[in-house]
Structure formats: C-alpha cells, structure tokens
Amino acid sequence: MSELARKERIVRRNWAAPGSLHDLLIKLLKILLPLLIVLLGVYMVLAPLNKGKEISFLLDKNKVEVAKERMRVVGARYQGQDAKGRPFSLSAERGLQTSSRDPMVSIEVIKAQLVLDQGPMSFDAPRARYNIDTQKVAVGGPIRFVGADGYRLIVGDAVIDLRSQTMVTNQPSLLIAPDGRRVATRSGFIDLNKRRVTSGETVVFTAPNGYRLQTGNAAVDLDDQRMVSSGAVNGQMPLGRFSAGNLMADLDERRVMLGGRARLHIVQGALR
Question: What would the CATH number be for the domain defined by 172-272?
C-alpha cells in the first residue's frame, strides 16, 4: 500500500472513530429525526382544528371592472311555438344577452323558419333583437320573406310577433303574390298567415293585367282577394281611370264598388 493511501485510510478511521464529530452527529440525528417525525404527525392531526385568521377583502363596485356581456353565443339557435302550437326556429351567426334580468337577445345575421296555414315560410335579415319572454323579434331590415307557395315579402325595420305570426312596421313594404299581384305600403300591420295588409297610409295595389289602385286607410287580403278602403281612391284599369272617396273591391272578380263622389273616365276605344 502506498504512503498516500495509508494516510487517507488513517484520516477516514479518525473521522469515524468513537467520539469524533461524525460520531456525535449520528447520535444527535438518532434523537432529533424521530422527534421531528412525532412533531410533524401531531401538527398534521391538530392543524385542521386550528382556526386561524382568514384573509378577507372588499371590492368597490365602482372600481372593479365588470364584464358587460353575460353570454355570447356563436351559431345560436332558438326554438318555440306559435299560438297554434306549430314550431318556429331562429338561427343566428351570433347572439348576445347582456343581463339575466333582460330577456332581450341581440342577434346578428338572423334566419327564421315559420309554419303557416299554407306551408312553411322563411325570412332573413342582417340583425334583430329577440325577446325570449314575449317571442317578439325587433328586426332591422331589409327583411326578406319567402313562402313555399311563392309569396314574397320585402320590408324595412319591423316587429314580428312569432306567436300570432303578425308584423308591425313603419317602413315601406312590398307583398308579392305568385301571380304577380303586388301590395305596396309606407307602413302598416301585416298578417303573415292570412297575407293581409292593413295600413292607415298610402296603399298601392297593382296587377299584371293593367289594374292599379292607390288609396289610404285600406285593408288588402291577397288570399281572399278583397280590398276595402275608407280613404280617397285613384285607380286605372284597361277600361280607363276612376276615383272615389272609398271602395270595396273583389280582386278575383275584378269588381270595384266605388262610393263618395265616384268618377269614371273611359278611354276612347277601350270598349271595342
């Protein structure tokens, strides 16, 4: 064994010899480690029973940022039933409800499906506000309705009652029948199910065979093909022109009853 190895061996023996620093450290750890384990166990048992001070804080509602949006939905869809129990549905690219206390849902790019007596009808519009409680939709136009049987309706801003399938608007509207008959109004009440337009303002009825009526305070029913007006009437037909204070018309029979200083101007040669 070399002299260097002999010296290292002597050093290790002295380090581990009885009474050395290492020997005292081991004896001390034999006492402290079991004691620490006992203390740790006692702490773990008693810690849940210790009711220390809780940390609390107050928030100033005027200084804390509050989320303005309660719920935003992408690809939203809402369903319900009308007064006759028939289903309707609304779909939107985005829906936003600002408060749980507010039943209004703001909708972007709305598409709706209704079931009428004559079959399904759909409409679309760029934006709307849907009241979940009343099932009414305040729609920002233009609104385009298309019926399965060919009826079309174009209208500006309007409030649509999905339960009664009716609509109120203060914007111009145009109802077009499959055979080309048209009813244009500046504002009015429209029954989507009965295709009935009622307006206190100007109403213009036109037919592809040359008939045209302009009046006010009128109700036009395209399904029953009847028109009643209590306002001044001006119109034309292949026979000539006419005017009156009011009218009752059977659009199917092309029969018009004029009242209130009725006047008829027949075009020369029209009776041939």
Answer: 2.60.450.10
